[in-house]
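Feature request, filed as a ticket because there's no other form

It would be nice if the structure record came with a short human-readable summary line next to the C-alpha cells. Right now we just get the raw output. Example of a typical job, pasted below so the devs can see what we mean:
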Amino acid sequence: MIVKVFSSSANLGAGYDILALAHNAFEDAVELKVELSSDLSIKVEGEGIPLEIEKNTSSFALYELLKDFGIKARVRVKIIKGIPVGLGLGSSGASAAAAIFGANELFELGLSRDNLVKYAMKGEIASCGYPHPDNVAASLVGGLINVVSLDPIHVEKIPINIDFDILLLIPLAKIEAKTKKAREMVPKQIEISKYVSNSRYLSSLILGFVKGDRELIRLGLNDEIVEKAREPLFPYYSKIKEIAISHNAIGACVSGAGPTMTVFIDSYSDKNKIIEEALNVCKAYGYECIYKIAKVAGGARIERRD
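Raw output as currently delivered:
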C-alpha cells in the first residue's frame, strides 16, 4: 500500500498546539509492505531520514500501534519525502500520519479519527521528544483542525467559509533540533493580560473562518506569547508581516516552529508585491528564500493498494 499525505502549518497565530491547517504545497508518500510473522519487526527505507526505528517518526508510531494490538508481522516502511524537513511544514508529523493511516487500513483495525491521531502523534517523540497532535491531525484529516483535548485525544474540523490561498514564504534556514529549541523558548508563566489577549485572538480567528470574515481572521493571526518568545529564531518575521498587511493580505503568522511564514491572501491582496518585498527582506537577513502558493488540502489517502 502507498499512502500520501500533505504538508501543514500549525499554531496559526495564538493557536499554539491547538490549530493546524493542511495545504497542498508538498506531500509525502509512505509505502508499507507487510508479511505475517512469528514476531514484530520493522525495516525503514528512504533517503535523508533516520533509519533507526526509535529515531524515525513513521516507524516509531507504527511500532507503538502494532505492539498495542499484538500484531506480529514483518513490515517494510519506505518513505519518499516530498515535504522539506525542519522548515515548519509538518514534515515529521506527515510521515507518521501516513504510516498509521496505512496500517489501520492494512490490518483492518477500524481506528477512530481520534485514535489515529493518538498513535500518529507518538511519532513526534522520535522527532522532538514531545507527542504533539496538531500537524499529524491536519495531515490525517485535512482542512483546518482544532485540537480540543489531549486526554483523551479529541480533534475537530473547523468549517472554512472563506476563499483564500496560502502563500508560504520559506527561508532555507536549517536549525539543528529546531522544534525542540523552539519549544524550550515558550515561556512557562505568562501575564494574565497576555493570556486574555491571546484568547481573544484565538476566538477571533476561529470565528473568522466559520463566518467568512477576513477582518476577524486578520485580527486572529496575532500572538502575544509564543511568537514573541521565538522572535530570535526568525528576526525577519515582523518586517514580512508588515509587508503582507500593507499589501492587503488577510493576515500572516509563523508556520509551526518556523522558519516558514504563512500568509493568507485573496483577490484583494497584491501577492506579487508581497512576494517581491518579502524575498528582499529574507535576502537582507542573509537567507535564501523560496515561496509556494497553496490551497487547503484534504487528508490522508491511499494512492495504491496491491
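Something like this underneath would help us a lot:
The mean pLDDT is 93.
The longest strand covers residues 19-36.
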